[in-house]
Task: structure prediction
Amino acid sequence: MTKKTAFITGATSGIGQATARLFADHGIDLVITGRRQERLNAMKEELSTKVKVETLNFDVRDRAAVFAAITGLSEDWKSAINILVNNAGNAHGLASFQDADLDDFDAMIDINVKGLLYVSKAVLPFLMKNKQAHIVNIASIAGKQVYPNGNIYNASKFAVDAISQAMRIDLLNEGVKVTNIAPGLVETEFSLVRFKGNEEKANATYDGLEPLVAEDIADSIYYSISQPDHVQIADLLILPKAQASARDYKRN
Ligand code: NDP
Ligand code: 8X3
Result:
């Protein structure tokens, strides 16, 4: 069986962090990225007892920094990485199109869409050379259905969904599998970021219902990358029991 080595963006928190931990439990060597160096250091210290870990600190919006960090990896890493988990991303704001802040629109397009493209283009040459390669893009139910005030977050995740489909077609002859994962409500730092540190608003997102936890999505990512070589999980939509659509929740 080919040894698995994964590159995970946004591993300092939430879904990316839980995925890094689960992968390490399964012996998958890791390149983990984020902007919070102290968290990257802590993750490296925690996971290095199980697997090889490299950390890279860059803002996915910074195209030059993305390419400098990734092309600067050692040849050992470059010849080993066969899984890319494009997870880094967030919502910025929850306001009507007419009231929303243009800086928030920029952030979501630049991080969730352009950042994912930069990282993918930088990592892809290794994936195409290495065996049994796989890209997992973290989209969202927000990329399948629009909800009030979701506007450009929705647009950014619809873009991720389309990019997953496009990658799957274009990479068909390269032997690179592509999985799109679309979670519903997951309790992470996501809402704190969306509401710019307002804990009351962030907590209200999960009022009266049991959301998913990051580990639930890590499980589905691991499931996707641990299938036999001939099986390609194309798209997974994973919701809490208390959620039926991007706008239908059952709250107590
Ligand atoms: P968190 O806020 O907990 O984690 C986001 C991660 O992305 C962090 O590690 C953060 O690292 C990284 N990140 C954010 N902005 C940047 C940037 N500019 N450059 C580099 N890294 C960045 O949220 P989640 O774990 O919930 O989110 C992970 C993914 O899951 C996102 O793509 C999100 O859209 C998606 N998702 C989340 C859902 C939810 O309900 N939570 C549901 C559906 C999808 P750092 O700050 O250190 O840079
Ligand atoms: C995150 C889930 O419903 O808040 O993508 O957009 S939602």
Q: What stands out?
A: The pocket of NDP (ligand 1) is lined by residues 10-16, 34-36, 59-61, 87-90, 111, 138, 140, 183, 185-186, 188-190, 193, 214 (CB under 6 Å). The mean pLDDT is 98. The radius of gyration is 17 Å. Residues 102-129 form the longest helix (28 residues).
